[in-house]
Amino acid sequence: MKRVYVNEKWCLGCHLCEYYCTFANSGVSSMVNALKDKPLRPRIRVEEHDGISFAVSCRHCKEPLCVKGCITGALSVKNGVITVDSNKCVGCYTCILSCPYGCISPDDSGHAISKCELCTKNACGEPACVKGCPNQAIVYEDRDVTDTNKEAAV
Fold it and tell me: Whole-prediction pTM value?
């Protein structure tokens, strides 16, 4: 299954992935109207530690603890993508506590959660963070996770 992978060697720490993610999931057709004078609520975050920048987003785990911990069934796996049914979410945040990568956060309403769904619910075709990365540090590809050489190569 295709997933988002990050090569920290190429990440500039520009945060453009966060802007493109927020815009793609805003439901607004104009980037200016979607972002101007509004707080960014991206589903991907750029972290910076010891001079190294890297993007963090949902890893769409094969055995997701967040889905197992969801008491209402709001989180489910569809075609390998962990998706959120906000109509079922009660905002208990068990999934936030369950995610070992810190990739789930409260949504704007404070009564549900927000996480990367690989732009499957908008018209991007591929994740907007990948399209918007100027240095191609974020890629969307299918990898054999048992092949450690390929993992290190990108």
Answer: 0.85
